[in-house]
Amino acid sequence: VKKKGSRYEREARPIAQAAVLGAGIMGGGIAYQSASKGTPILMKDIKDEAIELGLKEARKLFAKQVERKKLTSAQMAEKLTNIRPTLSYGDFDHVDLVVEAVVENPKVKDAVLTEVEGQVGEHTVLTSNTSTISITRLAENLKRPENFCGMHFFNPVHRMPLVEVIRGEKTSDAAVAATVAYARAMGKTPIVVNDCPGFLVNRVLFPYFGGFSQLVAQGADFRHIDKVMERFGWPMGPAYLLDVVGMDTAVHAGEVMAEGFPERMAGMGGDGDRSAIQVMVDNDRLGQKNDRGFYAYE
Length: 298
Ligand code: NAD
Prior knowledge:
Blueprint: H1 7-10, E1 18-21, H2 25-36, E2 41-44, H3 48-67, H4 73-80, E3 83-86, E4 97-100, H5 106-117, E5 125-128, H6 135-139, E6 148-153, E7 162-167, H7 173-185, E8 189-194, H8 201-217, H9 222-232, H10 238-245, H11 247-260, H12 276-282
Parallel strand pairs: 1-2, 1-4, 2-3, 4-5, 5-6, 7-8
Antiparallel strand pairs: 6-7
Helix pairs in contact: 2-3, 3-4, 11-12
Residues 21-27, 44-47, 50, 101-104, 108, 112, 129-131, 153-155, 245-246, 249, 253, 289 line the site of nicotinamide-adenine-dinucleotide (NAD).
């Protein structure tokens, strides 16, 4: 863990303007957090509806702060102007750091990262919020792989303190330093980790999801498993957590993890097996993002 005043921070270039690609669960949360702590952020998506949803979520979070008297309405209005929604790359040449938070699909991420690299300045730091895909692997198609690293937030972004900063094979100290500094400016606790599928947290978490999925496939009641894990002392059980994460995201991530660590990913599909989580996707039960997952939401 790199504490304040570490080598990384001393070398950091301040981030005056950030951008996030994708206005989904994570992109919307990242935009809110950045805006809330005072760093202006462009929020780009390819769909108008996604931008609307991202903004709606940010407004809701700010409104809660007003309700709790932590912000005045005037401060909320001002902070909201820190988020600039967009469907185009106009103004990306002034961005200091980009967080890519589009769908967890290596091909889509490759295309988006190559595209954005052509739009930003040569010192802009590019980061990916991928949950599982190797940073060294994502850097392969980039012209400036030294400016690229992982910046992995957890869901919900405004509540989860940890951010994994992932150093790929070619990542420079300067890129790590800028990312660590931005995470701190957002009020988060960054840890710098080496690259591997799933990094640190998901490498631990996904085999757990696999164990859960296997139990459900064998007939266990997911509610019961959640209750047991809560009694065990975890803030929520695996079914509820999967609803928060999003079933489609978990399936994509599970595939990448299974490729990296086949022996550890039993229960997450592979070998023609349909995992319990895949069955949820097939039934359009994606979790809180579409109000129905293991549980139903209003
Ligand atoms: P999501 O499906 O909620 O949102 C993805 C967004 O990306 C959508 O709004 C989509 O329209 C947009 N998009 C797709 N192609 C795009 C493009 N070319 N340019 C701009 N936007 C584009 O997904 P999410 O849950 O927010 O996940 C995003 C990333 O964050 C994934 O890599 C995921 O693994 C990672 N992540 C997710 C979680 C989680 O709990 N959901 C946690 C940590 C990290």
